[in-house]
Amino acid sequence: MTLYIWRHPKPVRVQGICLGRTDAPVDPRKLRRLANQIQKFARRHRLPKVVYTSPLQRAAGVGRLLARRGWRWHRVPELQEMDFGDWDGRLWAEISRQEMDAWCADFAGYAPGGGETVQAFFARVNRWLSTLPGEPVLAVGHAGWMNAARLLASGLGVPANAADWPPAVAYRARVVIEAAPASPVPHRP
Fold it and tell me: Considering the entire predicted model, what is its pTM?
């Protein structure tokens, strides 16, 4: 399986915000640019006109545009960013040091804001990756999701420490995942 996944365009008014499931808007011009980029890539590589996206508007907006151009579009809840619970949509500066320290002390097992643990997030990413067909898949998702998929595909699994989390993928950047990860999701000590 080969997954070509693009990070959504940069949303507006999210500077300094914990952004997971918050449904932040995107400038429509940026959505069109990414839709054009994906369409050209698919045409150049003779790939099917099928795209999978997160249901959040910063990714789904690209799918909607491609659907208007004759593509098959699938909104996939498993492609959503990590759920940060009560932290989501809040300024990072408003989240207490005590809460942040608790997450860092148990990076894989703590549910930030009562949302999703990193371990559960990786399991969700892994489940979706294991359902993909042998032919190439095109998708639009989120930086955290893309990092999780890359770590799984490389065999590294869930990082035990926040310091081991990779830097965010750039907006509108493409990542290629070459193989579905093995189950169960390994936890790195």
Answer: 0.92
